[in-house]
Specification:
Among the domains are: about 15-85 and about 110-225, no CATH class; about 355-464, Immunoglobulins (Immunoglobulin-like, Sandwich). Helix 4 packs antiparallel against helix 17 and helix 8 (about 150-175) crosses helix 10 (about 190-210). The relative contact order is 0.11. Strands 8, 9, 10, 12 and 14 form a five-stranded antiparallel sheet that branches. Strands 13-11-15-16 form a four-stranded antiparallel sheet, with no helix packed on it. The longest helix has 27 residues, at about 150-175. It has about 475 residues and is α+β, with helices and mostly antiparallel strands. The protein contains 17 helices and 16 strands.
């Protein structure tokens, strides 16, 4: 086996390296059925909620909406305001670490199955295949001079591409309170039009033209994912010990010394990024597993065992080691701990999300005023925020150990508009001789759904 590995290394050193497609020609990947192709179609459903979300209603309003004008973000019964935007940090942290954890365990499985670029490209190329035919026909059509038939096919294809791209851009804007009627009636703002056009153009160019070049040149994840995997990561891998030396299969003949790979090139033909998995791992591989489907299909036809290309780790292929349990891998442990912390903080924030917010500011210039009757007066500004999507009526009160502490004006209920902060000024006064050590005062704001308290201090000359 060692001699065979040396032969393979020498073979690669002689020039059998992956030649990266620099965009000078389009990769027309062949579509072949199989378990991983089915997984990709199922993964497409992951983005179904994106197109359905804007049409779901909850409590007679759009269930998911980012109301930037009123700075309100609705998620069914939950309304999030800028004061709670810190939770977005936890969401982004969770998603980033989850991506790192997935890469450590299964390589770029997110790229292969769930990334929007992969999904949109798969849809665009599916449309292309239905209109222009198999890959060999598409290549001939690309090279053929312009004719009526070529113009017709290209026009039809690009029309559908543009429709999908525009639909994607409009769907995105529906989450921000824009409606289809706004587009048809010409009532959208310039900013909305620019964003819609930008998203549509991005989908059209990235999924229709750049395709795998987006993964290779635009997306930074392809470059950094190499630092996230290790010899335990499970990736699509060609078993060169079993496959080499390659040789074309001839009917009724057996070639001594040949491996199981019959050099049919089907694994390259189905690869959406043009990678030849037989030449080792490359950052162009998005771990979609389509090469496994292709190879298994060929092995089945020639009567050889499946698995010449399979999901496996370097440790298992090279050293026949069984994969380590996840709890024994330091990277997975660290990532899991961070994920748990992020989820815990996010869960705490969601469960303790109050319907209003209270902040009390004590007037500091001056801290107190001595009135003509000898009493001491303090001024407080209560900032009460309504964090619901409806007007809120609140009652304000206070309590304290200070004897005869009173408000200079009667405290009446206050109505606070949805998503707004209202300042309520309160003047409290007391005689200093009635204050026996404790200078604390607690303000209480009671709404329909919750009650908030805020501790402050009553200042006097003796407390300075």
């Amino acid at each position: 086996m060692i001699d065979k590995k040396i032969q393979l290394d020498n073979l690669y050193e002689e020039g059998e390296q992956w030649v990266q497609n620099l965009g000078d020609e389009t990769v027309h990947a062949k579509r072949m059925g199989g378990i991983f192709r089915n997984f990709k179609w199922i993964a497409t459903l992951f983005w179904t909620p994106f197109f359905v979300g804007p049409y779901i209603t909850w409590n007679e309003q759009q269930a998911i909406m980012f109301d930037t004008e009123n700075r309100q973000y609705h998620l069914f019964d939950i309304t999030i305001f800028p004061q709670d935007i810190w939770m977005l940090t936890m969401v982004l942290l969770f998603l980033a670490i989850l991506l790192a954890a997935m890469t450590t365990v299964l390589g770029r499985v997110f790229c292969g199955y769930l990334c929007f670029q992969t999904i949109w490209t798969d849809i665009f190329t599916w449309v292309e295949g239905k209109i222009e035919g198999a890959p060999i026909k598409r290549r001939k059509l690309d090279k053929a001079p312009m004719s009526f038939n070529k113009f017709k096919l290209k026009f039809f294809k690009h029309s559908i591409w543009i429709a999908i791209a525009i639909f994607s851009g409009i769907t995105w804007m529906l989450y921000f309170g824009v409606t289809w009627a706004d587009y048809f009636n010409g009532e959208i703002t310039l900013a909305t039009l620019v964003i819609t056009a930008g998203i549509a153009l991005g989908a059209y160019v990235f999924a229709g033209f750049m395709r795998e070049q987006t993964c290779l040149w635009v997306c930074p994840y392809a470059r950094i994912q190499g630092a996230m995997v290790d010899d335990q990561s499970i990736l699509p891998t060609y078993d060169y010990y079993r496959g080499e030396t390659r040789g074309k299969l001839k009917r009724g003949e057996f070639e001594q010394g040949n491996g199981d790979c019959i050099d049919c090139n089907q694994c390259v033909a189905v690869c959406p990024t043009g990678v030849d998995i037989r030449k080792g791992q490359e950052y162009g591989c998005i771990t979609c597993g389509l090469c496994i489907d292709a190879c298994d299909s060929v092995m089945e036809k020639v009567g050889k065992p499946k698995g010449l290309i399979r999901y496996t780790s370097l440790a298992e292929l090279e050293f026949k080691q069984t994969p380590k349990a996840l709890y024994k891998r330091p990277r997975v442990i660290v990532y899991s701990a961070i994920l748990l912390i992020a989820v815990s903080i996010l869960a705490y924030g969601m469960t303790t999300l109050a319907s209003m917010d209270l902040k009390v500011l004590h007037d500091r210039q001056p801290l107190f005023v001595q009135l003509s009757n000898g009493s001491i007066r303090n001024k407080y500004e209560l900032k009460v925020m309504n964090k619901t999507d409806k007007d809120m009526r609140v009652e304000i009160s206070f309590n304290s150990q200070i004897k005869a502490l009173k408000s200079n004006e009667k405290l009446t209920p206050v109505t606070i508009p949805s998503g707004n902060v209202k300042s309520v000024f309160i003047y409290l006064s007391a005689y200093e001789e009635n204050i026996d050590g404790d200078h604390g005062v607690t303000f209480v704001v009671k709404g329909d759904e919750s009650t908030l308290t805020y501790d402050s201090t009553f200042f006097t000359p003796s407390s300075m």
